[in-house]
Design brief:
The chain has 860 residues and is α+β, with helices and mostly antiparallel strands. The chain contains 15 helices and 52 strands. It is 17% helix and 29% strand. The strands form 13 sheets. Strands 1, 2, 3, 4, 5, 6, 7 and 8 form an eight-stranded mixed β-sheet that branches. Helix 6 crosses helix 8, helix 9 runs antiparallel to helix 12 and helix 11 crosses helix 12. The longest helix has 18 residues.
Length: 860
């Protein structure tokens, strides 16, 4: 039973909220309802005419429908008839002619409890009331699906709800697509003979000025989600482009999405239109399903029209089969079977209603989609793939690769081939083998690293490479043979000089993001989202906000002392009381305030001020628990060395535990302002914007993950956590990076990820404690200006002996184990110290600290 039927069949009056928004139009005249002037579409530019906010009125104060003022208001009797069941309405408003409409709101409605109905005045008079299905989304502004009406000059809206919730910010969007780039013979994107003809974005006049800095791509394609756009099923073929253009305008201007939601659209004549930008052969994230994970790893295809009772045409069905078969086969995805994603188990070809609660794609399309007969959509797509009707053209063959061999590892290089999206690298111990000893798939750079290789007789190993174009495999290159180097560099005998030369890679623990690597990537034009995806594979971007409590570890004294200024407020946190602090006391300017323990009872705190001379008590205030300063945009915290550092938010004198006689300084600040104080303390503010954005998201995520209720602070302000310098460390460049990534965090399994990062990976990151902290090749780290990528130093034998005195006199060093990732076999995991008294084996990390090295990736 639909919501509307439920509302009107009830015997006992339900708690129903309904709003009638009436927009009446005189031909050729447009005026804004708030008197602010015209808002008309220029030729070729979709315009959105939005209504003012809907007033929420008591049910006992229903307004009558506005009186008819002229013959142009024909049909208003019907509106008045509807109005006697509503509790609020809008006066008549005039707008320009339009072809598509939709309804949005900021908040206040529950999708499942809401029915949104519209009617419009077209060439044949007023239409019947038509329900616009609410289109759930995990992003943007709540709203309905867009509805194509052809040509209209007036509209009415009513919202019915089974709850008392009232919509806030209800708006009607009416869109005129304007003139099209061409009236016929639209330019198409030509693919191989097996790829269907696809009308390009340029041909239908796409707006490319969306808020997306660049398209976001999924790691792989998992399936297809089928939709309908809603609206007329009888538009002529040369108007389909206008429908697509108007749909994009509604999605961008009213739903606040960065582009049209769908990846493709198909009309009743079998015309296929390119949707969201980013490449028709790529896995471009859309906004079509209402589930972020599904949006990112599926293709969304919309059939243009309404299919509640009307059936799709034969041409439309044929085009959908060809398009779906080509797209799935291109990425190696079968037409049948299931997969799990975004908390859902979905068929490879699913309907929108399988992802969220919606009528989409309409009953007739859904019946065809789910049919198990030979004419069902899934069967037809499977048959098309099996028949080879959509086999894509192979990419070019890769030229003979080159190899730089190490001791137990090798780096393979090759030249790019046209249209290749990824590469496979095959390693073989014998050139007569028919299968790979090791197959590395999905390589995106023009190099890959192979490790843990064993030396064999004659030529040690053979390697070959092939290109893939979104899953379509090219032919293998010729074999390249190579020899491993003689294993040296793992053992050194202490020379007579007692100075040991050490070569190394990287700076820091190497887990997660390399900061120098992020800069190297940004210098190559890589976006922050792609940078983060590389260093934290398996995570996705989400959003978080709130406050964080930062332990200001640099403030080592108990009292919290701040500079006097206007706007300061003292808050007793436990008592929830506040006192506005004066700037003058007794005619003298207050230069400082402080919170400290009461001498006679250190469990209590008191508030003092300074004008001239010593501190004095302020109103003899005493309390137990936390107290804090807040109020101005920034507060100057006086540090033990006398320096003043500025912090946003509140500066708290925190009691570490109940009854404690000590105090610690804690900055309570919003997550966004916290990140502003982290970036420039962790990364040079002069670096590329995408590198700074990467740091912003990593720092924000690290902070959010640290929030806990188990102690009096969430995170510290030093390298033990991540460096935080407050407002004193903010810069214009880093603030811009924070604003550009506002609220963005990396998520994994519904929780903020553990986004560790270090200065330089040295060319290969180290594995960490989480599944997404994998060891990954990092060619971005090696760029001019990164002196940490490769380094050398001299270590005195006495330094090692002092750190490990039980060994006696150091005789020899031997690396006994490595992690297997990168040059020389990777980072050192254990090393033996052979001394005159005994031999001690320590970890690579211990060796790093006791030897005074930049990282645990080294050789002698």
């Amino acid at each position: 039973m639909t919501l509307r039927r439920l509302l009107f069949r009830a015997v006992v009056p339900l708690s129903v909220f309904a709003v009638l928004a009436t927009l009446m139009v005189s031909h050729g005249i447009s005026s804004a309802s708030d008197g602010q002037g015209d808002e008309q579409a220029s030729a070729g530019t979709p315009a959105v005419v939005r209504d003012r906010a809907v007033p929420v009125m008591p049910k006992a104060e229903r307004e009558p429908a506005p009186p008819r003022t002229s013959k142009d208001d024909a049909g208003e009797d019907d509106l008045a008839a509807a109005a006697d069941t509503v509790v609020a309405q809008l006066p008549a408003t005039k707008v320009a002619k339009f072809s598509l409409l939709g309804v949005t709101w900021r908040e206040g409605l529950v999708d499942a409890d809401t029915a949104v109905e519209v009617r419009w005045r077209g060439n044949d008079g007023w239409s019947d009331w038509t329900e616009l299905h609410v289109e759930p989304s995990n992003e943007g502004t709540p709203g309905t699906e867009p509805y194509w009406v052809g040509s209209a000059d007036a509209a009415a809206v009513r919202v019915l709800s089974t709850s008392d919730a009232a919509p806030r910010g209800l708006e009607l969007a009416t869109i005129d697509p304007g003139k099209m780039p061409t009236s016929s013979g639209l330019r198409t994107v030509s693919g191989s003979v097996s790829r269907p003809t696809i009308i390009s974005r340029a041909a239908w006049g796409a707006n490319n000025s969306g808020t997306c800095s660049s398209p976001i791509y999924g790691s792989s394609l998992r399936g297809a989600v089928i939709h309908h756009t809603a609206g007329s099923n009888t538009e002529p073929a040369d108007r389909s482009a206008a429908v697509v253009k108007a749909t994009q305008a509604y999605h961008m201007n009213s739903r606040d999405w960065c582009d049209i939601a769908y990846n493709f659209l198909v009309d009743r004549y079998g015309q296929i239109f390119e949707g969201r930008k980013g490449g028709i052969d790529k896995v471009v994230r859309g906004a079509h399903s209402g589930n972020g994970s599904v949006n990112e790893q599926t293709t969304g295809i919309a059939l243009m029209g309404t299919f509640t009772t009307a059936a799709p045409t034969t041409a439309m069905k044929s085009a959908l089969v060809r398009l779906t078969a080509w797209k799935l086969n291109l990425h190696g995805v079968p037409a049948k079977g299931t997969y799990s994603l975004g908390g859902k188990t979905l068929n490879r070809i699913a309907g929108h209603r399988n992802v969220v609660s919606t009528e989409c794609p309409g009953a007739t399309v859904y019946s065809w989609l789910t049919s198990t007969s030979s004419t069902g959509l899934r069967t037809q797509v499977a048959d098309a793939i099996a028949a080879g009707a959509v086999t894509a053209e192979r990419p070019a063959t890769v030229a003979l690769p080159t190899v730089k061999a190490g001791y137990h590892s090798a780096r393979v290089y090759w030249t790019a081939v046209p249209n290749a999206t990824t590469y496979d690298v095959c390693l073989m111990a014998d050139k007569t083998q028919t299968s790979c000893s090791r197959l590395v798939t999905g390589v995106t750079e023009l190099t890959t690293y192979l490790q843990d290789l064993k030396p064999t007789a004659d030529t040690d190993w053979y390697v070959k490479v092939r290109a893939l174009d979104n899953g379509v495999k090219g032919y293998w290159s010729s074999l390249r043979g190579f020899n491993l180097q003689t294993a040296t560099g793992n053992t050194v005998t202490v020379p007579s000089s007692r100075e040991i030369t050490v070569l190394g890679h990287g700076y820091g623990h190497g887990i997660g993001m390399s900061q120098y690597g992020a800069q190297g990537a940004a210098k190559q034009g890589v976006t922050y989202a792609s940078i983060l995806s590389r260093y934290y594979p398996g995570t996705t971007l989400g959003e978080r906000s709130g406050n964080i409590r930062v332990l200001i570890s640099q403030d080592t004294t108990d009292p919290v002392e701040i500079a006097g200024r206007s706007g300061l407020v003292f808050r007793n946190v436990a008592a929830r009381t506040t006192v506005t602090l004066p700037t003058l006391i007794g005619g003298d300017t207050v230069t400082r305030w402080r919170i400290l323990q009461v001498t006679s009872d250190m469990r209590q705190s008191t508030l003092q001020y300074k004008t001239t001379g010593d501190y004095k008590s302020y109103n003899a205030t005493r309390w137990t628990g936390d107290g804090q300063f807040e109020g101005p945009s920034s507060i100057g915290l006086i540090m033990p060395d006398g320096a003043t550092l500025k912090y946003r938010g509140a500066i708290r004198s925190a009691v570490p535990s109940a009854g404690s006689t000590s105090r610690n300084t804690v900055n309570v600040v919003s997550i966004e302002n916290y990140v502003r104080g982290v970036i420039a303390a962790e990364m040079p503010s002069s670096w590329m914007p995408e590198a700074l954005k990467s740091q912003a998201v990593a720092a924000r995520t690290y902070g959010v993950r640290s929030i806990t209720s188990s102690r009096y602070y969430d995170i510290c302000s030093t390298t033990s956590c991540q460096v935080y310098g407050g407002a004193s460390r903010e810069t214009t460049n880093t603030d811009s990076a924070v604003a550009a990534t506002a609220r963005k965090v990396l998520m994994h399994d519904g929780k903020p990820a553990f986004t560790q990062f270090s200065s330089s990976s040295g060319g290969y990151t180290a594995p960490g404690s989480q599944t997404y902290l994998k060891a990954v090749s990092d060619p971005w780290d090696n760029w001019t200006g990164n002196a940490n990528h490769a380094w050398s130093t001299t270590v005195s034998a006495s330094t090692i002996e002092n750190a490990h005195p039980t060994i006696g006199t150091l005789k020899q060093l031997t690396v006994t184990k490595r992690n297997g990732y990168g040059d020389w076999g990777g980072r050192v995991t254990s090393v033996s110290l052979v001394g005159s008294k005994t031999t001690v084996t320590i970890s690579g990390d211990s060796a790093r600290w006791s030897f005074g090295l930049k990282s645990n990736w080294f050789r002698f």
